[in-house]
Automatic annotation (TrEMBL):
InterPro entries: Beta-grasp_dom_sf, Mopterin_synth/thiamin_S_b, ThiS/MoaD-like. Pfam families: ThiS. This is MoaD/ThiS family protein. It comes from the Bacteria. SUPFAM superfamilies: MoaD/ThiS.
């Protein structure tokens, strides 16, 4: 299983803090399983994706295997 963590406002959009799905997981599969509202946000450049503890330079190259954790990282706000 691949564990997907929804952080910040993405958690509110998803309605859950995390979800487990069967791996492997590609970018397109991730967009399908997170739902349309979260997928729309993930397509934005300002939202990052981390897999197995590393932020991906190219999130569309995502390849998560069973046992991996994906964190969906919204932009940081504050001042």
């Amino acid at each position: 299983m691949v564990r997907i963590l929804f952080l910040g406002p993405l958690r509110d959009l998803a309605g859950v803090q995390e979800r487990e799905v069967t791996g492997p997981l590609s970018w397109n599969t991730l967009l399908e399983v997170v739902g349309p509202e979260v997928a729309e946000q993930l397509r934005l450049d300002r939202v990052n994706v981390a897999c197995a503890g590393r932020v991906l330079a190219d999130k569309t190259a995502l390849r998560a295997n069973d046992g991996d954790e994906i964190a969906l990282l919204p932009p940081v706000s504050g001042g």
